[in-house]
Amino acid sequence: QVQLVESGGGLVQAGGSLRLSCAASGSISSIGAMAWYRQAPGKQRELVARITRLGSTNYADSVKGRFTISRDNAKNTVYLQMNSLKPQDTAVYYCYVQSVLHEYWGQGTQVTVSS
Asked: How many CB atoms lie within 10 A of CB 59?
C-alpha cells in the first residue's frame, strides 16, 4: 500500500513557526504534484499550498508570504514551513500526493495556534 506519513504538527503561540513533513512510501508510480490542505472544525477542506514536480508553487492568499512549500523528490517528501502563525491557521493539515493513476492523502496532523 501507499502510505503518506505526516509529522511536525503541534501547539504553538501566535507568531511562532512549525515545519510539517510528509513522506510517501510504498508501491507508487511517479509522483507529480504534492500539496498541503487544511480543515478547521465546521469548515471545508481548503488548499494551502501546492508544488509541482519541478518546483512551481501556488499558495492560498491567506498564507502568502508566511508559508513555504518545498519538496525533496529523492525522498518523496513534501514540506510546509509555516512562519508567523496566526490563530486562524489552526486546523488539521493534510498532505496530498498526485501520481499518474491515483491520488493519496496523509492521515492529517493537528496544528493549533494559541493567542
From this structure: 18
